[in-house]
Amino acid sequence: MAHTAPNESARNHAGKSSPRYELLTLGDELLLGLTANSHLTWIGSELGRRGVQLARNVTIDDKAEVIAAQFRESWGKADIIITTGGLGPTCDDNTREAVAQVLGQKLVFDPAIEQAIADRFAKFGRKMVPTANNRKQAFKFERGEVLPNANGTAPGLWVEQDGRVLVMLPGPPNELRPMFTEQVLPRLAARGLLTTGEAYVQIRTAGVGESLLETRFQPIFDRYPDLGIAYCAHLGQVDCRISSPDGRYEMDVLQNVAQECATLLGEDFVCFGHANMVKVVADRLREQGRTLAVAEACTGGLLANSFTDTCGASKFFQGGVVSYSNESKMLFLDCPECLLSQHGAVSPECAVAMASGVAEQLGADYGLSITGFAGPTGGAGENPVGTIYIGLHAPGGDWTKKLTYPGPRCAVKERAVTAAIDWLRREVVKESQKAAAPLAN
Amino acid sequence: MAHTAPNESARNHAGKSSPRYELLTLGDELLLGLTANSHLTWIGSELGRRGVQLARNVTIDDKAEVIAAQFRESWGKADIIITTGGLGPTCDDNTREAVAQVLGQKLVFDPAIEQAIADRFAKFGRKMVPTANNRKQAFKFERGEVLPNANGTAPGLWVEQDGRVLVMLPGPPNELRPMFTEQVLPRLAARGLLTTGEAYVQIRTAGVGESLLETRFQPIFDRYPDLGIAYCAHLGQVDCRISSPDGRYEMDVLQNVAQECATLLGEDFVCFGHANMVKVVADRLREQGRTLAVAEACTGGLLANSFTDTCGASKFFQGGVVSYSNESKMLFLDCPECLLSQHGAVSPECAVAMASGVAEQLGADYGLSITGFAGPTGGAGENPVGTIYIGLHAPGGDWTKKLTYPGPRCAVKERAVTAAIDWLRREVVKESQKAAAPLAN
After folding, report:
1. Which of A396, A178, A420 minimizes the C-alpha distance to A290?
2. What CATH number has the domain spanning A201-272?
3. What residues of chain B, 20 to 49, have a C-beta less than 8 Å from chain A?
4. Quick one: closest CA in A to B175, which residue?
5. pLDDT of amino acid A17
6. Between chains, do B40 and A37 touch, taking CB under 8 Å as contact?
7. Homologous superfamily of B277-439 in CATH?
8. ipTM
9. Which residues of B touch A416 (CB under 8 A)?
10. pLDDT (0 to 100) of residue A438
11. In chain B, is it the N or the C terminus that has fewer CB atoms within a 10 Å radius of its CB?
């Protein structure tokens, strides 16, 4: 697309400049911090998987003149502009009008859209009142297409003009996401504006820092000098993305390289792709027909909640106890009173007792426990705020480990839970490997 | 600030144009959707409380030429630019250099910054290696100030130039937030760029839709025609913000109006300000010296976690049970087997048994329970996916209620937890009122 200024575009393997994507997210609620900008996170990630990195995301309020000014500036720079929000029936939705003005297009009433909205109302036993606001949603650009909305009233809009693409999406995530996946991505792929499949192979790792990971992988990558390598660290995990920027390596080469990295890493390798650690543990437990129970003090339910966010958790997750008091540790987890009084509730002994206690009570194969001081108060001496003990009861034995995390209460909870799940993952994977190769033991 | 174009600025009560704030958030990880843009949410909300709405948030990657181009454009429009990220020691942190070039300033080495970094390393028992990367963090603008970083290495930077303010903040939230609250907000307030106190009175409500709330409040607001009124709905709650855009009403008038609204609402009123519902429940329970225990099935730990995110939760929270199986309901919660086999685990009877069971087991005054089908599977007939029963055991009796939520698993969990906490809030507040006015009963 010739209008892209050279200093604003990347180059892809064919030597053509890569198309420049901009995302415009509209809404006062974003600027006031009332709602997180989940559209950036979700669309950015969906595009990233298909080889595209957003060049820019601009968030503005939904006043018509503000939208017009920003859209004019972005339309002069970008190849593809995606807008979110501002298409609904409420009175501050001026987006269509402001954009039409910049495009030099007319808005035209589309009876088919109005009918689709009326049908949707009827489906829920309501009658559409033909107010100005409801009718407003039935306007489209005179030279553009309509993206039907299966989950709401306002449809999306698609315009190709001046060698550029404009995609306008409704704000509610449950309307936007299926529309983007089912309608927008295939259209963009058909026009060669992104890859049709995954653009890279991702290796998820845990327990190794970014720079150490780089050092460990380097001898492998040295043999493939034209690979694209990117590292991303988040929440105690590091992902490594392997791609072929100049198209020299086929996907199966990338997969072989990734497999070599995984083998080298051993148990620090979590999975390929985008699954989370809980998913890895859940899949292995279901494979093995094993079950899990958890007991947690300072993480207060976050550990149990991490497992129960997974669909089908009831297949392996037996339950959990949030034991905030010594009484509950004795009652539910059979922690001996003498152990609690001798060692205290924040101790390796208590962590092991909690893990084995909850497993025994619920008849689970694995028990995982967390006890500690999440802060901001509690803790002193050997066990200051941020001290965490994790307990693991597994078919092969019982263990405990101590960790220390600085930071605010919620961050300590989150890191403790990630560390506990990672430890369980390592044990569960080892069990799977034993089962797969019984003679090797 | 005279350079602000009229069509890009709001007007405040003195007839002066309000200063235009822009936020530049830097980082590939934001554009790739690896990390949520929490800086927008947090800074947007902190500024909103002080009467400022961000005019724009722009997210770009941290390549030097991209930063320079965007910063140049924003510096031509905004009165205050806040940047986040790109100040750390890693090699893609080119932010300082790119910005210095646009400002026409030199970067100068500041031995005091280097010393502060070395001191911080020493505090954690490490020695600072004077690499180029570590040294880079010790450079500041020749005409600018340093914002010391109490929680990390790279300090923030403050520049006043051309009648504008530039604030550069480090990316990690635990470094950025205290720096913004303790150093940046007071400086901005001292220059008249935001209000020193809260700019509005906020009324938090629950259980009333936005349009009904508007109808109920209107007779009150009709008596104060110059009030600024804004409604914001989120997660089943609606907030109403009352301000005085032309400065006609003093804060105590706003507070009186808000009090009148609260009285009118009765138990649908949650609190003034920004506290969450859990905080309201926690404060009342601590006041009353009462305790709470929870039992949950389909919400899987999220209910317990909501309470234990609050500092000092152990003062009132006795613990919780995540009972994913009938066995765990019998074992931990004393749910009778005949009840489970007659009515099933997703039933009003089971919800009540769970709530009273967990309260009795842990000796708590209140028991709160949730059972249901969060989806995507399970549920049929009278109790389809999305069916939730909440149970409440309180000093005054035991109750249950049924709710139905559409949507994906995590959304159902979240809405069920919010509804349960809201119900408990209403009971706990009633108990407080009884205690305060015993003769009126």
Report:
1. A396
2. 3.30.70.600
3. 28-38, 40-46, 48
4. A407
5. 67
6. yes
7. CinA-like (3.90.950.20)
8. 0.84
9. none
10. 60
11. C
CB contact under 8 A, A59 and B55: no
> Collapsing DSSP states into helix, strand and coil, what is residue A267?
helix
pLDDT band at A363 (very low <50, low <70, confident <90, very high): very high
Note the pLDDT of residue B90.
62
Task: Establish if A243 touches chain B: CB-CB under 8 angstroms.
Answer: no
What is the pLDDT averaged over residues A43-60? Answer: 94
**Residue A91 confidence (pLDDT) above 80:** no
Contact A332 B328 (CB under 8 A): no
- Alpha-carbon distance of A372 to B49, in angstroms, equals 35
- Which backbone phi and psi does B216 adopt, to 5 degrees? -70, -40
Q: Which residue in A305, A317, A361 is closest to B302 by CB distance? A: A305
Tokens of B372: 């249901």
What three-state secondary structure class fits A133? helix
Most confident of the following: A310-314, B360-364, B401-405:
B360-364
Share of chain A above pLDDT 90, in %: 68
pLDDT digits (tens, 9 = 90+) for A143-165: 999 999 988 888 999 999 999 99
Look at B311 and A377 and tell me if their CB atoms are within 8 Å: yes
Work out whether strand A317-323 and strand A292-296 pair parallel, antiparallel, or are unpaired: parallel
In this complex, the residue of A53, A294, A306 whose CB is nearest that of residue B28 is A53
Same fold, B6-190 and B277-439: no
Q: Do B33 and A48 touch (CB under 8 A)?
A: yes
- Cβ within 8 Å, pair A301-B319: no
Question: What are A438's two structure tokens?
Answer: 């019984």
Task: Return the pLDDT at A1.
Answer: 33
- Report chain A residues whose CB lies below 8 A from the CB of B125: none
Q: Domain residues of chain A, as ranges?
A: 6-190, 201-272, 277-439
Looking at residue A309, what is its pLDDT?
A: 92
Q: Mean pLDDT in chain B?
A: 90
How many angstroms separate the CA atoms of A314 and B297, rounded?
Answer: 10
Among all chains, which residue has been given the structure tokens 């993305």? A241
Is the pLDDT reported for residue B174 higher than 70? yes
**Beta-bridge mates of residue B403:** B388
Residue B168, classed as helix, strand or coil, is strand
Q: Which long-range contacts (CB under 8 A, 24 or more apart) does B258-266 make?
A: B258/B201, B258/B203, B260/B220, B261/B203, B261/B217, B261/B220, B262/B203, B264/B216, B264/B217, B264/B220, B265/B203, B265/B205, B265/B208, B265/B216
Across all residues in chain A, what is the average pLDDT?
Answer: 90
pLDDT of residue A379: 81
Q: What percent of chain A is modeled with pLDDT above 70? A: 94
- Comparing CB atoms, the residue among B8, B304, B410 nearest residue A309 is B410
Q: Angle CA(A197)–CA(A199)–CA(A204) in degrees, nearest 5?
A: 110
CATH number of B6-190: 3.40.980.10
Contact of A8 with chain B, judged by CB distance below 8 Å, is answered with yes
Contact predicate B296/B302, CB 8 Å = yes
Q: Is the Cβ–Cβ distance between A320 and A296 less than 8 Å?
A: yes
Rounded-to-integer distance, Cα A418 and Cα A270, Å: 13
Name the burial class of residue A42, with classes exposed (0-12), middle (13-18) and buried (19+) by CB atoms within 10 angstroms of its CB: middle
Cβ–Cβ contact B327 with A under 8 A: yes
Which tens digit of pLDDT belongs to each residue from B249-274?
999 999 999 999 999 999 999 999 98
